[in-house]
Amino acid sequence: MSQSSMADTYPADDLCVTALDRLFQSVNRSDAPGLVVGVARHGKPIYRRAFGLASIEHGVANTPWTRMRIGSTSKHFASLAALLLAEDGKLDLDVGVRTYLPELPEFPQEPTLRQFMTHTGGFRDSLDAGFLASGPVIKPKGEGLAIQMRQGEVNFAPGEKMIYNNSGYQLLSLAIERVSGLSFEQFLKERIFDPMGMLDTRSVPSDFEIHPGTATLHVPQPDGSYRRGMFPSEEVRGEGAIVSTIDDMLCWLRNLRGPHKVGSDDSWAQMLTVARLNNGLVCKYSLGLQLEQYRGVDIIHHGGTVFGGNCQMLTVPGHALDIIIITNGAAVSVVELANSVIEVMLGEDLLPLPAEKTAASADFMPLVGATYASPDMQMVFGFGDANGKLGFAIHNSPVIPVREENGELCLDFSRIVTGPYRVAMQPLAASDAAPSTIELDDGGTRWVLERLPETAPSLAVAGQALVGNYRVPDLNAQAKIEFDGDALVVRIASDFGPNLLTLKAHSSDVFAWNFTGQLAQLGGSLTVERSNGEVIGLRFNTLRTRHMHFQRIAN
Question: Containing domain of residue 412, as a range?
């Protein structure tokens, strides 16, 4: 029997079911990991399917009852847990976080738990910092808090910007534990999962734990094989720990739309109130949820990415349409699939697809390959081509296509969960030169960035000034920059092992680098600090970590 026959269907929905089967046909295979998908209208499941293998190792197929990790889709559960404690009068989301976590370092301005929930708190992301210190090594319980306690600086002042931050949700989880007197996992079970009847849902802090019926996470390798996905922490909590099934998640989506079985109407009103920055800029992110429109209909959604899997949870409340897609390694875009499900289910109720606003590389060809930087902002910002579309490359990230609107090149917060970024720029003729400066709007703050040399300096010359030893107090690490043959490398030694970064020069004061292995798609940049012409330190930056200080020490 083919896996596509494993479903509950209803005669009135046959046309939709057939169309959805076609949509998922590419993953209906028995030699690769797959996904589970659930679709419901007005609370009635009309499509429950499982495709591909839950375990390549054991040749076990996914079923509609297979448990999978939902990753960051967990975040709004943690937000609701905090709101339930606020309902109890035990937690105030709008006081300084040190009220509940006094061991955190003191900074001039103290974020609130609510700002953690909207990614506007400004703290660095301990997951990202851990990647910088030792790559995707699995960190033990307690290390997330320990990293935060070591930080001597923050990314930005509370409410000034928005940068996606897993640490905020881990710290929120710790506050929930301390106030409730229960483990975070037990609190979710007693106050959310059990009352909702979500009996197959758990908060699982470590991928070393074994839970019946849970799919293996599969990380694809360049040679076509797979490695087992393991999240690099043994204390994943509100940031992404939940394991669930499509039936439990469809049950949850009914509650999210209302009427609410768990959580008061006031709490859900707060859950669905989008964040506002100090400068008045309104974002599309609320408390662990994103509120947007798709082809004229309002949607509420949140995705999740883990090592070897992805999730997209989405509801169209105006049409009582609920969608959950969870993968354990299928090579698909769950966001695009969920949007396609909306199109299948709502059809003529949708507005036509909007006109393509993506900026074409051909219209801005002098910008392609140009890189800009600002020492004040600690930002390295480049332009590149993505299959004919102009894109931004931020801190040596992969090129991300941007849209063109009213004379600006725009990258919305929802694309990379930072920003939004805007650059005022009109199309350029091929004979034009790339401008020497650009004005970048980063979440309402404007910066002037200067173009870096079109021809990079010799790495042997530019890199020689960096060669030496460094200490990194915020990572509890030591670093050494040296030449390895023709390559300039950074060797970082921390409590959990070494990390290796390879540098390339943009100028004598700006360098780029990428992680290696499973993190190879993540990049960063560094800017050089000098005194009297001598290098005294470096500032490392990624999309989620700003100005991490490497202090030069005597050789």
Answer: 361-451
- Mind listing the pLDDT tens digit for each residue in 419-441? 899 999 999 998 999 999 999 99
**Cα Dmax for the chain:** 79
CA angle 432, 435, 437 (to 5 degrees): 180
* Distance of alpha carbon 299 from alpha carbon 321, whole angstroms: 10
pTM higher than 0.85: yes
How far does Cα 301 stand from its chain's mean position? 14
Question: Is residue 323 exposed (0-12), middle (13-18) or buried (19+ Cβ within 10 Å)?
Answer: buried
Q: Which of 451, 476, 502 is the last residue of a domain?
A: 451
Instruction: Verify that 403 and 474 share a domain, yes or no.
Output: no
Q: pLDDT tens-digit profile of 198-229?
A: 999 999 999 999 999 999 999 999 899 999 99
**Centroid of chain to Cα 490:** 25
CATH code assigned at 514: 2.40.128.50
Element (H, E) at 148: helix 143-150
Please state, in angstroms and rounded to a whole number, the distance separating the CA atoms of residues 33 and 25.
14
Burial class from Cβ neighbours inside 10 Å (0-12, 13-18, 19+) for residue 454 reads: exposed
3-state secondary structure of 160: coil
Asked if 522 and 544 sit in the same domain, the reply is yes
Q: Is residue 429 part of a domain?
A: yes
